[in-house]
Amino acid sequence: MSPLTLILVGFLLMVLGILLPLGMMLDVVPATFALCFLAFAASVAGVFMGIVGASRYVARRR
């Protein structure tokens, strides 16, 4: 997978990790344990994928 794809997927996961709790706070989405865990997991996976993508991008440019 290319580094830019990893960064993009990481960004989308981070956005999902922000929008899900926002929807729970506004009572648009019910706040269940599974959705709370999914939001947390998406946020952590997004950060991890973004860091891996950025490091691969820098390594490829050197």
What does this 3D model show about the protein?
Helix content is 84%, strand content 0%. The chain is mainly α. Helix 1 (3-25) runs antiparallel to helix 2. It is elongated and about 45 Å long. The two termini are 18 Å apart. The model has no long low-confidence stretch (mean pLDDT 95).
Number of helices: 2
Instruction: Specify the overall morphology.
Output: elongated
- Find the count of extended strands (DSSP E, 2+ residues): 0
Low-confidence stretches: none
β-sheet strand percentage: under 5%
Radius of gyration: 14 Å
Gap between N and C termini, in Å?
A: 18 Å
Largest sheet: none
The helicity comes to over 70%
Mean pLDDT over the full residue set: 95
Element order: H for helix, E for strand:
HH
Structural class by sheet pairing and helices: mainly alpha
